Amino acid sequence: MREVCVNDQQSAGVAFEIDDTYFADVTGINPDSTAWFSVCERLNLPSAERIFFALCRSMALNSHVFKPGEVIAAEGAEVHESHIVMNGYVTVTQASGKSFRVGMGGVFGLAEGVMDLPHAYTVTAQGMVTTSVMPLSRVHREMPRIHKGLQGIERCTMMRIISGSGANIVDKS
Amino acid sequence: MSGFTAVTFKAGEVLFAAGDAAHELFILQSGDIELLDGKSGQVFATLVAGESFGEQAVLAGGVRSATAVAKGDCACLTLTAAGLNAILKKESPISNLLFQALHLQLFMQNALSQAR
User: Fold this and answer.
1) How far apart are CA A151 and CA A158, in angstroms?
2) Using CA atoms, how far apart are residues A87 and A79, in angstroms rounded to an integer?
3) Does ipTM come in above 0.90?
4) Quick check: A160 and B102 CB within 8 A?
């Protein structure tokens, strides 16, 4: 994972993206296997890369392609679907004026959507961008059936995401 | 809750240290836990009852990036990495995706917060 401070919308710096250098090394390996763990350890993969690669291996989601300049999410708007950036770069902005460039692995609208909150950011495709779409309607249907312990962990994770986003939103759940 | 184990810690007790292999995650039931930066040793967060912690390293099979110390006497539920995997295996594919994607979103949000 590469992290660079970005304050200029035109800057080439990237605030967050997955380093896919070693993606091919884990392709074809079951994320639940000891072989997966061994390869991740040998490559010394950071946690975000491990989670993203595992996510890709288990992912059976629809993809969506956005053209340059197309708005993927609008700050304050109702969340209809969540996007995971699989290819390309997006500009992430807030009304506060903060602007970031985010690449592969960026996730938008998930915590907000699950908690019935509006989008925390405006997300715009910088070039051609491919995302995987998380079906929130299915997530909402599944939530009551999820293990209670996992639900607690997920709720805690979502609160940290929402709190960190600095968005002016209130938990309605 | 099945798979979870109740544990208690005395004030000042170290739950885990930065650099340790991550074997379990925690859900704090009572008391406060301080998280210390692995490099500076400074407290960067104080967790209260109801919060979970340590799950990112467990999910990714990595090492602790912070040190956790009991501020006072604490009670926690712990879940081992194997226990978490066992639970996730029983969950639907969409539940697994949700769990992983939320933690990926948290990684992104932390990076954005640092870049502000």
Assistant:
1) 10
2) 21
3) no
4) no
